[in-house]
Amino acid sequence: MSRNATSSASPPLVKSPGLLCFPAVSMVACTALMLLAGCQKQEAADGKLPVMVRTETVAMSDYAPRTSLTGVIAARTLNNLSFRVGGRVAERLVDVGQHVEKGAVLARIDPQEQESDLRSAQADLDAAQAQLTQAAAAFERQKTLLAQGFTTRRDYDAADQALKVAQGSVDAAQSAFANAQQNLSFTELKAGAAGVITARQVETGQVVQAAQTVFTVAEDGDRDAVFNVQETLVARTPASPAVTITLLSDPQVRATGEVREISPVVDPASGSIRVKVGIPDTPAGMPLGAAVVGSVSAKPTKAILLPWQALTSSAGKPAVWVVDLSTKAVTTAPVEVLAFDSGTVAIANGLNEGQSIVTAGGQLLSPGQTVEIAGAGQ
């Protein structure tokens, strides 16, 4: 029994030495590969290739920023025309936009009342002249009688006084008649100067009062370009700058003007100051209301002008990349920006003349990195 039991038992399993060592070898190999990869990355990081950049040498220059604003052409003189007497408008002869000559009749009011006043003044004048004629005859008679001794001095003085009163009455009647004639002429509204009708406030049949504005006329002559300018720009602009005026619809139409008037107060609605630029010999291509562009240069200051691509950021502030020419390594230098212009940036402080500034390729740089300057050695 014991033999059979012993013989039927399974033989002990023997593990292969190769199977026992395989997992350990694998772990060692993986570790070695990881260390090798890390070393390769570290070597690659330590041996970065230089970045190709373009540079520019810092140099101070005069910077006079040029400001351009949009404005409109306006008349230098605007006349508000009105009747000197009141009445009903009987006729309107012109409309807005029409050009009128000096002395042209623009409108008429019904002259019936003024004609009646004129007839009354004429009658008063005739009566005063008749009284003057009678008083003059009486005075001459008293004068002759006094010389002959047939009248008293008292009657003579009375005749002389009556003559003077009659003469005064005639003078007053003549003045009233002249006023009535003038009032009749005021029933026609005439242009005081040649110009263009820019506004109309009445219509035929409307009753107007004396001195009520009827038409607004922009007189012919030199025009103004009117701009709404920020207060800071006015402060930085020279006292009497030359302003280049260009027609917005046709830049070929140009003129040069000078500041003629600056409003002393700031417009509360827009926060700007109204500036009028006089344009002598205004071109015919600049009609009233035309949109124009005015350009003027500010006071020149010393600044460093760089392409806008040279500007970067360091700690949230403007900066540029400075190249050390001996080591070709770059560092950031904070700068103070004076102004931004089209394609350029004006630097006020932070740089010295002769420094080399990266103007292209700066987006690929990091502090301490070496660079290769494009065009160097050519």
Unreliable runs = 1-26, 35-46
Would you tell me the structural class of the helices and strands?
alpha+beta
| Shape descriptor | rod-shaped
Portion of residues within helices = 25-40%
Radius of gyration: 50 Å
Order of helices and strands: HHEEEEEEEHHEEEEEHEEEEEEEEEEEE
Largest sheet: 6 strands, mixed
Oligomer: single chain
Q: Compute the average pLDDT.
A: 84
CA-CA gap between termini:
104 Å
Report the count of strand segments: 24
DSSP summary: helix tally: 5
Strand content: 35-45%
Structure description:
This protein is an alpha+beta fold. 30% of the residues lie in helices and 36% in strands. The strands form five sheets. Strands 1, 18, 19, 20, 23 and 24 form a six-stranded mixed beta sheet that branches. The chain has a six-stranded antiparallel β-barrel with strand order 3-12-15-14-13-16. A hairpin with a 6-residue loop joins strand 19 (317-323) and strand 20. Mean pLDDT is 84; it is low at 1-26 and 35-46.
Key traits:
378 residues; disordered N terminus; six-stranded antiparallel beta barrel; 36% strand; six-stranded mixed sheet; 5 helices
Task: Give a brief description.
It is built from five helices and 24 strands. With about 375 residues, it is an alpha+beta fold.
Topology:
Elements lengths: L1 H7 L8 H30 L4 E7 L2 E4 L2 E10 L2 E5 L4 E6 L6 E2 L4 E5 L2 H37 L4 H33 L2 E3 L4 E6 L6 E2 L4 E7 L3 E8 H6 L5 E6 L6 E9 L9 E8 L11 E7 L3 E7 L3 E4 L2 E7 L6 E5 L1 E5 L3 E6 L6 E5 L10 E3 L5
Parallel strand pairs: 1-24
Antiparallel strand pairs: 1-23, 2-17, 3-12, 3-16, 4-11, 5-7, 5-10, 6-9, 7-8, 9-11, 12-15, 13-14, 13-16, 14-15, 17-22, 18-19, 19-20, 19-23, 21-22
